[in-house]
Amino acid sequence: MKVSDIERHDTDILILGTGGAGLFAALHAQQTAPEGAKITIAVKGLIGKCGCTRMVQGGYNVALGGGDTVERHFMDTINGGKWLPNQDMAWRLCEQAVVRIRELENEVGCFFDRNADGSLHQKAFAGQTADRTVHKGDLTGIEIINRLMEKVLASGVEKLQEHRAVGLIPTKDSRALAGVLMIDMRTGKFRLVRAKTVMMGTGGGPTMYKYHTPSGDKTMDGLAMALRAGLTLRDMEMVQFHPTGLLAGDHTRMTGTVLEEGLRGAGGQLISHTGQRFMFDYDDRGERATRDVVSRGIYAEMRKNNNPEQEGVFISMAHLGPDNVRKKFKGMVNRCADSGFDLAAGKVEVVPTAHYFMGGVVVDVDTRTEMEGLYVAGEDAGGAHGSNRLGGNGVANSTVYGGIAGDTMGRDVAGMSLRDPDEDVLAAEFERAIYPLSRKPDLVLPLRKQLQNIMWDDVGVMRTEAGMKRGLKGIASVSEALMDVGVEDSNLAFNLTWHDWLNLRSLCDVSEVIAKAGIARENSRGAHFREDYPEPGAMEDSAFTVATLQNGRVAVNNEPVQFTIVRPGETVLPEGAPETLVAAQ
């Protein structure tokens, strides 16, 4: 296989990923792009059948009255993110969520749960001062993605399914993006897709941890590509652990699956192996504290227990009435039953599970990056959440900023032309991707499990400098070992071992950045908790980490947060506004 074998393909607008961000970008780009513009959407799997948005259970945060306001949603987002969010991005998220939910209902055709009077039902999620999470039972993501998928499949958008992006290819001067190198997984052939504008919405996927919620093919590919392309990444130490991942044993891939936040919002209780409800020992909000606080509380309880057969803690819903639980949380009750657990009437063992990545590429409020022609939305983009994402803000972020990216690309593309790629970078990315095909075949999975244990133990829920430095050495050892592992090359069509190798390469690259950013942040904010630096630091001196690749090495620095809308100690809520609208638990 040679560089000259790479197929060449041109389009006007290229969208990587078909989660909420990618599908919304495609629909909005059709509305703003000049007539005749070619829009192409590429995805690692199948449209509507992969990605994280489809897996969303809980819901969609939006301020729709009843005392709730955009200002209140914004303040919850800023407080939840511990004053690290990009405030302009956070404001636009909260403001445009109101527009987007109406679009989802009236134009996309989503059906959400309603109250008896016909208004949208909204439930309580942790860390929020209003019941603002719109949902479709506990299967909200499936509803949103199914309807978006129908729209996109019926459109004239070109579809490159089962196409894996492996490299962002810039122009010779590195000022602009020329295109994206991909592997057609169905044939194993390479394809360079040139485009005037490219949106990256490949999603996060912190599957480098022992317990994780995303599917195993979500492996931080977008952020790994962005790093190699010289883009700046922010908040890379901020890995969100969802407090309640199902602990079903090593024999099932259900382990790590989220038991969504609505359980705790509805009054679910966390119980230790000694039968004690413990969360009020860690926070006055109990189980309704933010995800980072609850995850640390569970992790602390786990460390108290020396019995290896009792690893997690339990979530109990039975006191709310089994029939009521079965009705309100049908999806999760059935999912637990499939794994042998009775969520409605019994107890289910849970563990913190790596869920969402707050870090990502530095972008502006219109999703533009520092590289001309490249736009980033969804979980690939950093800034909106700061150090902690509120439950329900994730799918809102993807759909809001996916639509914004589509609008922006559609307008920008009129003044852009196709660019010539840097053939040297193209050759380097090609050689990087085919590297394992020239080595003696060996097993990839043991190395991935080794990385997952390293990250869980040393760069996980609670961290120290010594632990993270130990983790860096472990990551390096996995990376070095991977370079000695080869893949059988007799048939590259759907060669899943090859893609497992590429997945682990991305995970190793991003894991290194997570650990180095964690060492650089010598305080505890949101999802990042340092046992050797437990204090959060002065909010007015807040800074976020920025990571870049310089001469082949990851460099991390700090940049001050710009308080463009509100400063610590202040609020945008009107004087006399109640602290919370949520009824006491």
What does this protein look like?
By secondary structure, the chain is an alpha+beta fold. The chain has 14 helices and 18 strands. The strands form four sheets. Strands 1, 2, 6, 7, 8, 9 and 16 form a seven-stranded mixed sheet that branches. The protein has a four-stranded antiparallel sheet with strand order 15-10-17-18. Helix 2 (70-80) crosses helix 3 (87-108), helix 12 (445-458) packs antiparallel against helix 13 and helix 12 runs parallel beside helix 14 (496-520). It is globular, with a radius of gyration of 23 Å. It starts with 6 loop residues before the first strand and ends in a 25-residue tail after the last strand.
Q: What is the rounded distance between the termini?
A: 63 Å
Largest sheet: 7 strands, mixed
Q: Taking all residues together, what is the mean pLDDT?
A: 94
Question: How many beta-strand elements?
Answer: 18
Number of continuous helical runs? 14
Content-based structural category:
alpha+beta
Shape: globular
Strand content: 15-25%
Q: Please estimate the helix content.
A: 25-40%
Radius of gyration: 23 Å
List low-confidence stretches. none
Q: How is the secondary structure organized here?
A:
Elements: E1 7-16, H1 20-32, E2 39-42, E3 60-61, H2 70-80, H3 87-108, E4 122-123, E5 133-134, H4 140-153, E6 158-160, E7 163-170, E8 177-184, E9 189-200, H5 221-228, E10 233-234, E11 239-246, H6 262-265, E12 269-271, H7 291-304, E13 313-316, H8 322-328, H9 330-338, E14 347-357, E15 360-361, E16 374-376, H10 393-412, H11 423-434, H12 445-458, H13 465-482, H14 496-520, E17 543-550, E18 553-560
Parallel strand pairs: 1-2, 1-9, 2-6, 9-16
Antiparallel strand pairs: 3-5, 4-5, 7-8, 8-9, 10-15, 10-17, 11-14, 12-13, 13-14, 17-18
Helix pairs in contact: 1-4, 1-10, 2-3, 3-10, 5-14, 12-13, 12-14, 13-14
